[in-house]
């Protein structure tokens, strides 16, 4: 947006300079026409006075004509320079307009990409929320299952109820002890012939 604003300011400056240059061109053209009219008037005057054979006046008129021709040449040179400057300014204006268009297109693409990223972020947040809910559900079920295992393990005959929180290793050791005792009892019954 800052780039577009800067380009638009440059565009406005160039367009203002272009208008000013065109105005100067029109003024130079008017001056050129005036000078040409003066030159024509002087030529007419020179023709009418030539018949009267006023040598001194003819020399003066010739000087004026020479001066006017020089002014016309200078005005034409300035007009050519102004035309060249107008052409350059028009090229600059066209380039700035193209840059503004390119910048707007780039910003539009960035906005579309940002919207796509925003949608992806919202989808990920939704999935994260679902995952957290599922994790809490699984954690709750696991804690209930663990609690039941601990209760079943330490409620058997001969087991001491835990006085503090039991670790997973302690639960496994207690379960292994119960399993070993059952296996020994089963083996003893088999040896005595009891089915």
UniProtKB/TrEMBL annotation:
Keywords: Coiled coil. InterPro entries: CC-FHA_domain. Residues 4-45, 72-127 form a coiled coil. The keyword Isomerase does not apply. Signal peptide: none annotated. It comes from the Eukaryota. This is CCD27 protein. It comes from Chunga burmeisteri (Black-legged seriema). The lineage of its organism: Eukaryota, Metazoa, Chordata, Craniata, Vertebrata.
């Amino acid at each position: 947006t800052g780039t577009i604003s800067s380009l638009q300011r440059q565009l406005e400056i160039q367009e203002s300079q272009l208008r000013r240059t065109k105005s100067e061109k029109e003024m130079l053209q008017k001056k050129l026409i005036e000078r040409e009219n003066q030159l024509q008037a002087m030529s007419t005057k020179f023709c009418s006075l030539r018949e009267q054979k006023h040598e001194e006046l003819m020399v003066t008129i010739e000087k004026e004509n020479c001066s006017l021709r020089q002014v016309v040449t200078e005005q034409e040179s300035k007009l050519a320079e102004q035309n060249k400057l107008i052409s350059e300014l028009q090229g600059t204006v066209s380039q700035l307009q193209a840059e503004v268009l390119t910048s707007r297109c780039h910003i539009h693409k960035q906005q579309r990409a940002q919207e796509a990223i925003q949608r992806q972020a919202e989808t990920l947040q939704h999935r994260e929320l679902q995952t957290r809910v599922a994790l809490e559900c699984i954690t709750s079920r696991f804690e209930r299952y663990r609690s039941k295992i601990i209760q079943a393990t330490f409620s058997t005959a001969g087991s001491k109820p835990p006085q503090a929180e039991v670790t997973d290793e302690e639960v496994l050791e207690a379960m292994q002890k119960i399993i070993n005792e059952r296996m020994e009892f089963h083996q003893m019954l088999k040896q005595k012939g009891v089915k």
